[in-house]
């Protein structure tokens, strides 16, 4: 009985459901069919929100369309990106052939540039990039040796409306036999996309190539594979570049203006929202935010009610004056995420305040940008003034100092931007021998720290102070010998005795560069320290080779005819231990600018001012041997060997470029003079006028390669305590220095 009731109840429920469906849905569907048959239209069960017939009373369809410059949705951007870059998931492990680079160890990292075709259009900026690669130590003209390939086709400007746009890139690169879907290729780009959306479309398929691109979006950036580079102008210097401005205005840390911006305002299109709102924070006192509509051919057609007032206010302030006198600089996005103002702010030590959501900052893999910039949010513009006001003076000074370090290390020239890109890729290829974040974010910067020498911070002289490390208590003397050994009375014999008596001397290495073979060990005097004679292969630059025999951190470089006392050696070594990153020695020289010849000059006059300490008697760290051999180009070392001259000047250039400081001169009993030898039987090189002229030319050649003059003048000299004081000589530690 109970089962029968249950079945009856279920049947009634089913009938009710059918009735409801018929009257609630079926009738409506039939009515809709009748209506559509009558109208001749196709009926959709659920209306489309863009249907004109469905939304006539709310908005016209044209009004519903988004502004042509408005940002796309994240899904649309991802779909567009995946359509353009089919290998968006590329990583070094999946899209890079490591075997091409490891054939010769780290020396296998070579870069090949495709030759440009006849009448190829190449922009000035791209020509600078190719020049930087071609003059680097990584360039090879043989594609079989290459680890990395760079196109000869200019890919910097991919805006189809630009005069620099190069068409048909896809067809051309597919014809390259080495293209291999872009594997092991590096593509440089500054501008992508075009009006109105400025997407990141390059107009060709990059395949598995590494993209070194400005204004990269974090959504499209392939971490550990792509490299984000800064946007730089065509006037950016090839080499060297100007120094940062902090040295001219260090204290107080805050400047006249707290926050500034002066630039274009876009009335329509992408990037207009951010810049249109900048006038809200302008107070005309400590915050100056100026925009102008006066740009482009038809700006007057689009001008709004604010344009005239903004244009007048814009002309009241000078951009360079604001840049020099502002603590913080707004860096809002433009049409693209990057902006020229980013590099301008870094150089000016004006702390960048970024308003560019989604921008992957330049060299973000290695640079800790939170130590140099303030990252704002475009949607929270009105909070920016209170944010920068809350930054304390110590933090302001630290941020400004870091902007200078980064500017001078990585951004002041096209050379540095390109070499930083290559070094980042090289560290990825040889990840077991690579720089750490500390090396990239501390002076002197990653480009001057060669991990092939060591990956330990304590092995580099410029990190000692920060690590609280003291250099070793022994040195290795390297004596450069060019004269054959004829008698036991030659100056080198006395020099060996003097140096070997120093309690700090660990060993002596004689670098034999004479045309005659070196004498047997029995010809050399007995000494309390090991003596090694090494073949210098008759190359002047060989005195700075990273000889394996040098085991101490300190190197005492000596010419064979140097005249010193043991006490002088000891004192100079103790001074060097306090300044291990610099050259410490005796004979000084100087450079000067000749306005008439518009060239650098070299002088050996005795004055209180000097910028060079000759390495004929000087201490320095052994790392500079490695840097001299592996960082400087072969062309400069060849010049030194061809002229048998200038190697000491080149070493001073190198060390000053690393430290941004002058060498240190110490007290000496006798002045080191470049005079002929007493007998007159042999003319020493510096007695020849041609020798001096060569040194003049060397100074200019070296300055040209560095792109600036790294030598720094100084009047600083270190003497022993009580040196030449009117007290008893017996009370002085280095009494021999004052005796005739």
Automatic annotation (TrEMBL):
<feature type="transmembrane region" description="Helical">
    <location>
        <begin position="7"/>
        <end position="25"/>
    </location>
</feature>
<dbReference type="GO" id="GO:0046872">
    <property type="term" value="F:metal ion binding"/>
</dbReference>
<keyword id="KW-0325">Glycoprotein</keyword>
<dbReference type="InterPro" id="IPR040911">
    <property type="entry name" value="Exostosin_GT47"/>
</dbReference>
<dbReference type="InterPro" id="IPR004263">
    <property type="entry name" value="Exostosin"/>
</dbReference>
<comment type="similarity">
    <text>Belongs to the glycosyltransferase 47 family.</text>
</comment>
<dbReference type="InterPro" id="IPR029044">
    <property type="entry name" value="Nucleotide-diphossugar_trans"/>
</dbReference>
<comment type="pathway">
    <text>Protein modification; protein glycosylation.</text>
</comment>
<dbReference type="Pfam" id="PF03016">
    <property type="entry name" value="Exostosin_GT47"/>
</dbReference>
<keyword id="KW-0464">Manganese</keyword>
<dbReference type="GO" id="GO:0050508">
    <property type="term" value="F:glucuronosyl-N-acetylglucosaminyl-proteoglycan 4-alpha-N-acetylglucosaminyltransferase activity"/>
</dbReference>
<feature type="domain" description="Glycosyl transferase 64">
    <location>
        <begin position="475"/>
        <end position="723"/>
    </location>
</feature>
<keyword id="KW-0479">Metal-binding</keyword>
<comment type="function">
    <text>Glycosyltransferase required for the biosynthesis of heparan-sulfate.</text>
</comment>
<keyword id="KW-0808">Transferase</keyword>
<dbReference type="Pfam" id="PF09258">
    <property type="entry name" value="Glyco_transf_64"/>
</dbReference>
<dbReference type="GO" id="GO:0050509">
    <property type="term" value="F:N-acetylglucosaminyl-proteoglycan 4-beta-glucuronosyltransferase activity"/>
</dbReference>
<keyword id="KW-1133">Transmembrane helix</keyword>
<keyword id="KW-0735">Signal-anchor</keyword>
<keyword id="KW-0328">Glycosyltransferase</keyword>
<dbReference type="GO" id="GO:0005794">
    <property type="term" value="C:Golgi apparatus"/>
</dbReference>
<protein>
    <submittedName>
        <fullName>Exostosin-1c</fullName>
    </submittedName>
</protein>
<dbReference type="GO" id="GO:0015012">
    <property type="term" value="P:heparan sulfate proteoglycan biosynthetic process"/>
</dbReference>
<dbReference type="GO" id="GO:0005789">
    <property type="term" value="C:endoplasmic reticulum membrane"/>
</dbReference>
<keyword id="KW-0472">Membrane</keyword>
<keyword id="KW-0812">Transmembrane</keyword>
<keyword id="KW-1015">Disulfide bond</keyword>
<dbReference type="GO" id="GO:0001503">
    <property type="term" value="P:ossification"/>
</dbReference>
<dbReference type="InterPro" id="IPR015338">
    <property type="entry name" value="GT64_dom"/>
</dbReference>
<feature type="domain" description="Exostosin GT47">
    <location>
        <begin position="107"/>
        <end position="390"/>
    </location>
</feature>
<keyword id="KW-0256">Endoplasmic reticulum</keyword>
